[in-house]
Model the fold of this input.
Amino acid sequence: MLLKELSSLASPLSQGQVDKLKQLTSELSAVQLAWVSGYLAATANAGQLAPVADAQTAQTVTILYGSQTGNGRGIAKALADKAQAQGYAVNLASMGEYNVRQLKQETVLLLVVSTHGEGEAPDDAIELHKFLASKRAPKLDNLHYSVLALGDSSYEFFCQTGKDFNARLAALGAKSLLPLIECDVDYEAAAGQWHADVLEAVKPLIQTSSASVVSIGTAKVSAESEFTKQNPYSAEVLVSQKITGRGSDRDVRHVEIDLGDSGLSYQAGDALGVWFSNDEALVGEILTALSLSADEQVVVGAEPLTLKQALVDKKELTQLYPGLVKAWAELSGNEVLLALSEDKEQVRQFILKHQLADLITLYPLATPVTLNATKLLELLRPLTPRLYSIASSQSEVETEVHLTVALVEDERHGAARFGGASHFLASAQEGTQVKVYVESNKHFRLPENPETPVIMIGPGTGVAPFRAFMQERVAQGIQGDSWLFFGNPHFEQDFLYQTEWQQYLKNGDLSRIDVAFSRDQAHKIYVQHRIKEQGQALWQWLQNGAHLYICGDAERMAKDVHQALIEVAVEVGGLNSEAAEAYFETLRSDKRYQKDVY
Ligand SMILES: Cc1cc2nc3c(=O)[nH]c(=O)nc-3n(C[C@H](O)[C@H](O)[C@H](O)COP(=O)(O)OP(=O)(O)OC[C@H]3O[C@@H](n4cnc5c(N)ncnc54)[C@H](O)[C@@H]3O)c2cc1C
Ligand SMILES: Cc1cc2nc3c(=O)[nH]c(=O)nc-3n(C[C@H](O)[C@H](O)[C@H](O)COP(=O)(O)O)c2cc1C
Done:
């Protein structure tokens, strides 16, 4: 309940008590508030207030997470639950909600943080990351800490943000409880081990007691549902329809999924997590190439399965990782692959263009080396779900969820190769079961004030969340200005949701649209060129308080668009390039410049 509502509700407090409470709580940070609320609840049950001295000295394990796509948040939440079960007082918070001034008071700090972009901090960790690297960071001699870093070893800067946090905390005098834990995409086992180890390491530092206050307060995981990544909802595909033209060299699907009576809810800006099954033909190809039997009985986790089922539903077949390339090089003894596997950059490039099936074909195992089913399963990583920006609003589609999915396809050495999840969704028939969960993204939200103008930059499948934004704005009757930048290769073939945008324009729901069809003329035109062309107007919109959104390709588009925005700030806004960077940095920290890039 909000404090300001206290006096207007039938509360057991007198007006004087309400005033005192207001005065006290106005001075508290979010973490302190959460602590006090748990403290009061616990002591209320005991019948009398615990001595304040106890309360002040009661030590708390603070668990902070920096997480873009939910993995770190899940690990942190599970750790908080385990710590709570062991009797520890716990504060769990997103780094984005954490008051950095609180750091000096902490005695035990456990961090879970992923890495995004190219070795960059996830959105909610940016401020704390910057603060710790700055001169303002305090000495932390009284602090014990441990960091679990999440990452993906296919990226050049593996677990970089976690490494940064670990190094900075040490440099500030904090004492490490455990060596840095670096986790790859198959992080579950390592995270579970860290939970056990770190809680053991904390034991001598903190007394647990059954009366200890537990306040998992500041960071309520939003829109909690019984359906999660680990426990997804089995939904039904309603439609998977190609929305690029016959002549297009891209296959983009509009996918509609029925959430039935799951009760799953989402907001415009959220993503859908999709578990998929690998293509049976691909599994057949791998089994044949390795002379393994589809029906062989194996165990994955504790689950008995046939080898075929295990490969279809439990293991990554379409994404390679550096460890697998190395292991295969050693197994095959192939000199070329062995040399390649020693060179990080070559491995990264190789992974982008090859899958397991290619590895087996190009570098076959020389007799007498063979691979049995158990060894094969050991080499492969567990299947991980993929995220897709939600392209619908529940205000419009109720229990459905829509996605815009680009089929990842390539021809490699004469064989058609597909991305695992996009192929599954593109091939889905009406009624196909698909396991899904909602991944909330509070860093990609429409402005609270409906009058605030929005500028949406979403070429390719990046347009998906803007379809959700528009549906939501129309359902809410929002009148504020809106501007879409869209781009793709050809107007005729690749104008995703063309008629919908035209209708929004006609009805006045969308104020402007600027399109860039890169290959419809001799020279390439992309959204960043349109942004430059419209620099005057765009700058004016920003001066009028517009919120700016970018969605889609992280590798090139988002960087080029950012550069174009800087140039607009310099050429139209009259800033020098440093001031222009600072301007967009301020927009970002004011939540007026939000990105959903992948
Ligand atoms: C927050 C978020 C939102 C996303 N939203 C969308 C969305 O709205 N629409 C959408 O289509 N995708 C979206 N993605 C990307 C999506 O999650 C998948 O990464 C993508 O569909 C590829 O997965 P896959 O299983 O089909 O391919 P994988 O099995 O992961 O990849 C197969 C092979 O293709 C290569 N590869 C992977 N991606 C590409 C690529 N883009 N181009 C060429 N080769 C590639 C890999 O190197 C690998 O060898 C989003 C990602 C994130 C993190
Ligand atoms: C767009 C994108 C960029 C990424 N960049 C990196 C990177 O530079 N280094 C790295 O180690 N991992 C990188 N990752 C992998 C994530 O860190 C990994 O998926 C992690 O489990 C995500 O955790 P989170 O869901 O808590 O954010 C990237 C992932 C995405 C989607």
Notes: Residues 67-72, 114-119, 122, 150-152, 155, 157-160, 185, 554, 598 surround flavin mononucleotide (ligand 2) (CB under 6 Å). Residues 1-9, 45-58, 211-222 have pLDDT under 50 and may be disordered.
